[in-house]
Design brief:
This is Sieve element occlusion C-terminal domain-containing protein. One of its GO terms (biological process) is phloem development. By secondary structure, the protein is an alpha/beta fold. Helix content is about 40%, strand content about 15%. The chain folds into two domains: about 10-160, Glutaredoxin, CATH 3.40.30.10; about 170-365, no CATH class. The strands form two sheets. A seven-stranded mixed sheet has the order 2-1-5-4-3-6-7, with no helix packed on it. It has a four-stranded mixed sheet with strand order 9-8-10-11, with helices on both faces. Helix 4 (about 140-145) packs across helix 10 (about 255-275), helix 8 (about 195-215) packs parallel to helix 12 and helix 10 crosses helix 11.
């Protein structure tokens, strides 16, 4: 796969900034990070977080293999291509990289493209200590479970799913260190999204008013929208400036918003590949509901307390229930009862008119035959949509 003479050191250690022989990877699990030279910065940043989880345990090594033949990067002059490569290798790759793309055998790159189906999108292939490919698409497992997914096999994937329920821990525990802290303190956690800043103002003010009246320890965190654009950035800045709720770090908000949504899509695809469907799997149903909320023009919110109580609802329905808390607030005589009572109130509210939609990217690979509306429970109509959106 990598061209190397006996005296050569074809690997570059991004942490030590030294060249190494191929022997440093012998009899180890190796994760091949395969990409072209156009690597999304948010993917790299989140991979850094995951890699650092295991760096002290030395469970596996990561090796970056840049694919530069037969790609758009080949249209660049060699000097420009080398500049991009060395900038990525030296400043963004703390793991091993090939010292130069030319060291990758042409036959190996053809094999990766033809048999491993690499085509622009970054992928991670897992090699076991005997050098056998044990997983051709480990990124979804990494997004969901981080280094806890090691050794990234289907057996490990099934075991991880068998051990979890639909909880705030699964939904967002790894996204922000404040969430597990709030869970330990038994606080009510609210994750909410959308890009309508007026709805966000109404919702956060109403939620804080109810929390104060009922003496509920409430923490709210804005998670934006899938494919965040300028509107989401504007909302993030307004929420932070007006102190409407918690937000992700302003400097890194895009990475965390992207991470939240890519984890949801990864859960969807992981379940699908294991044979689950929205008809027979509760977690897929819950994920589909949130994806439906995000596909709409409205905001949405999920409330949780502890690791088992959760409720959720769309835009105006949630605001209406919160605004009318005097009709149900008397049932909340202890913070433990807030989420179940709120769930009952939301479920008992059905808008006279609604138009929900679920947008599935073409690369998901799995299009369910039937999708139940999260608002009324009826089967949704199926359409094909082409979309181009500019802010």
């Amino acid at each position: 796969m990598i061209r190397s003479r006996e005296e050569q050191r074809p690997l570059y250690d991004g942490t030590k900034r030294t060249n190494e022989r191929l022997e440093v990877l012998r009899l180890k699990y190796v994760l091949l990070l395969i990409s072209d030279l156009d690597v999304p910065h948010e993917e790299l940043n989140v991979l850094h977080l995951i890699y650092n989880q295991q760096a002290m345990r030395h469970e596996y090594e990561v090796l970056w293999l840049p694919m530069v033949r037969s790609t758009s990067s080949m249209s660049l002059p060699t000097t420009a291509q080398d500049t991009i490569f060395y900038d990525l290798r030296n400043n963004n790759m703390p793991w091993y990289s090939v010292d130069h793309p030319s060291l990758i055998e042409p036959v190996a790159e053809r094999y990766i493209r033809e048999f491993w189906k690499f085509d622009h999108m970054p992928m991670v292939v897992v090699l076991d200590p005997q050098g056998r490919a044990s997983n051709l698409d480990a990124l979804p497992m990494m997004w969901i479970w981080g280094s806890n997914a090691f050794p990234f096999t289907k057996i490990r994937e099934k075991a991880l799913w068998a051990d979890v329920d639909w909880t705030i821990e699964l939904l967002a525990d790894s996204i922000d260190p404040r969430i597990p802290e709030w869970t330990r303190e038994n606080r009510v956690i609210c994750l909410y999204g959308g890009e309508d800043i007026e709805w966000i103002r109404k919702f956060t003010i109403a939620a804080r008013k109810v929390a104060t009246a009922l003496q509920i320890p409430l923490e709210m965190l804005y998670v934006g929208k899938r494919n965040p654009r300028a509107k989401v950035q504007h909302c993030h800045e307004v929420i932070d400036r007006e102190k409407l709720s918690h937000v992700f770090s302003v400097k890194e908000y895009y990475d965390y918003v992207w991470y939240f949504w890519i984890r949801l899509w990864s859960m969807w695809n992981s379940k699908k590949q294991l044979g689950m469907t929205v008809d027979n799997d509760l977690i897929m149903q819950e994920i589909m509901d949130i994806l439906t909320y995000d596909s709409s023009e409205q905001g949405w919110a999920v409330f949780s307390r502890g690791n088992h109580e959760m409720t959720k609802g769309m835009g105006e329905t949630v605001v209406s229930v919160l605004d009318n808390y005097q009709y149900w607030g008397h049932k909340v005589d202890h913070p433990d009862k807030f989420v179940p009572v709120l769930d009952e109130a939301i479920r008992g509210t059905h808008p006279e008119h609604h138009c929900n939609k679920l947008i599935l990217p073409s690369y998901t690979g799995y299009i369910p035959e039937r999708v139940v509306c999260s608002e009324c429970g009826k089967i949704m109509d199926k359409y094909v949509m082409y979309r181009c959106c500019n802010d």
